[in-house]
Amino acid sequence: MRVTFLGTGTSTGVPVPTCTCAVCRSDDPRDRRLRPSVLLEWEGATVLVDTSTDLRRQALDAGLMRLDAVLYTHAHADHLLGLDELRMYNWRRGGAMPVYASAVTLAAIRRTFWYVFEDVEAGGGKPLLEIHEIDGSFPLHGRTVVPVPVHHGTLTVTGYRIGGFAYLTDVSAIPESSYPLLAGLDVLVLSALRVRPHPTHMHLARAIEEAARIGARRTLFTHIAHDLGHAATAASLPPGCELAYDGLTVEVP
Prior knowledge:
- The chain contains seven helices and 14 strands.
- It has helices at about 55-60, 75-80, 85-95, 105-110, 115, 205-215, 230-235; strands at about 1-5, 35-40, 45-50, 70, 95-100, 130-135, 140, 145-150, 155-160, 165-170, 185-190, 220, 240-245, 250.
- The termini are close together.
- The mean pLDDT is about 95.
């Protein structure tokens, strides 16, 4: 399976409007971070995790010509508001886009994108969605997708495991019941917001501790704020841990 990081930033993206810090002024392209999303590709399938605010830009940058499904982690703006861009992929596939999410996330999607689900004038078109409520593991184009519940402050969000790969973003804590779902990973993607602790996201030191406990062969940190410059942060990480960046591709056995 190939994993492409479409965006590795936090909700503001990096650079942050109005900010003149060293990272926001950096000329290192790895310090330019769109809102968080990954693209998963395996034989016969192209699957997107979240429709970020920057989806149009991400799709153009990645040359994304087709989509077979979308997995949603939760319905915060930076992970959801690109949903309307799915119209182009509806046209290309000639039908509705299968989307997978928890009941809580689906309810929020219905509120935010109400016009998608009601009989109203479409104007220039509206996304067509084939809704699948997640209730345990499910098959997807020849693979098994395992939902991994994690905490984002007081909100429970959905991480995903497919084979030896797991994607956990917007995490402040991992419940004990989820650790067995993360055993034996080749690649773990885990959010690491900044150096200082944060109430709804793991900070870097906490993410490193969690990476050691989970024990994946390779851990890549994402959902990164402008507090962390890529080069300096990457140089400080222990073996087995890396800082992801936009456009990075990883092959998972």
